[in-house]
Amino acid sequence: MNIEALQTRHPSSGEDAAPRVVSCRKFYDRESLMAYDPESEDWQKQLARRYDTHFEIAQVLNNVEDVPMSTYETFDMKVTPYLAQLMDRDDPNCPIRLQYLPSMKESLSVRMEHTLADELGEAEHTVPGTSVVHRYPRRVLFLVTTQCASFCRYCTRSRIVSHSGERAIGRADLDASMAYIAGNKEIEDVLLSGGDPLVFTDRKLDELLGRIRSEAPHVRFLRIGSRLPVQLPTRITPELCAVIEKHDVQMVNIHINHSKEITPLLRSRIRMLRRTGTMLGNQSVLLKGINDDVQVLRDLFMDCVSMGVRPYYLYQNDQTLQGAHFTVPLSRMLELYEGVRGWISGPAVPTFVIDGLGGLGKMPVIPTYVEEREGHIECRNYKQERVRMDYLRDGAKI
Ligand code: SF4
């Protein structure tokens, strides 16, 4: 099955690893929402308490933008109660609200000429009959589910995530994907993504990781990309950590876009995850009105390293059907880089990247610091101080 097939599957044929449905009451008054302790109950129960529409969340937040119900035809809304607690009650420009609540700007995105359902050309690079995207040599992206704890409005994979059950990735897809990975000995790096692989139960994740390790011993680097720690930190449990450690998952990349998402609860669960010995990275998306600000990025990256998470990539936002209005111009991206590099610790600075249209791959965005001009090599630092280093020229006598 390829991604196009994922997009057209009938709900009844789906057997996605959607979170187990548990019947739980949602919080429709602010007092009960704020009194709720996310550590007091199982993470799956919290999924059942998610807000599904702007009408629902308007019961606990003020100034929620009214959008037509047709908005949800393009992309569902899901917000965990934990995230709702973090949202500013009154400010519609709260960086967490902007990431998760639908906006009228989305209908403008849908009409823009350059927006695409599959900007990165993943469907084209999906191995037929599987949910494996094989674009680069020696490494693959393994989409294991179409489900997430909450849906980010700018999601690059919005064409397959959301709409529970309609675009399921089932056992047959996982089996075919496993057969492909097992049969291609040159694959040495597998990134589990989706959707969010941590919506799997511990048992299901244990089984899948175990299959990769036993059926594809040539895989040297096993990674998981997940936003669940940020949307529902209590998903990180000792049992989950045991599974990650058991299968030697070498890297878990989380996804934080603003320091407001870094709470004491997240910090404590990240500490738990670090004890597994896995590397922790953070991938952020550059989003207009949310984090396109030098101080916001400096704080975000330093807050990440302070909890032992290495900023890995800062992505330019993709031109998805509903999220193009978040895009920051390239010139501003370069200014932001200049405002970060040199001004905060080196290991806190991620690679700024643009993902090439149609599947060209990731390209770093870096201002020029070293130039060859009129036969001289001219270097400048982050404070615009300059020095000539002509001994670096071709043929220079050293
Ligand atoms: S968690 Fe990831 S896959 Fe899910 S909606 Fe957000 S960006 Fe998309």
TrEMBL record:
Domain of life: Bacteria
Reported cofactor(s): pyridoxal 5'-phosphate; [4Fe-4S] cluster
PROSITE patterns given in the database record: RADICAL_SAM
Keywords for the protein's UniProt record, in alphabetical order: 4Fe-4S, Iron, Iron-sulfur, Isomerase, Metal-binding, Pyridoxal phosphate, S-adenosyl-L-methionine
Radical SAM core domain sequence ranges: 134-347
InterPro entries: Aldolase_TIM, LAM_C_dom, Lys_aminomutase/Glu_NH3_mut, rSAM, rSAM_sf
Family indicated by similarity: Belongs to the radical SAM superfamily. KamA family.
Annotated protein name in UniProt: KamA family radical SAM protein
Native organism: Lysobacter niastensis
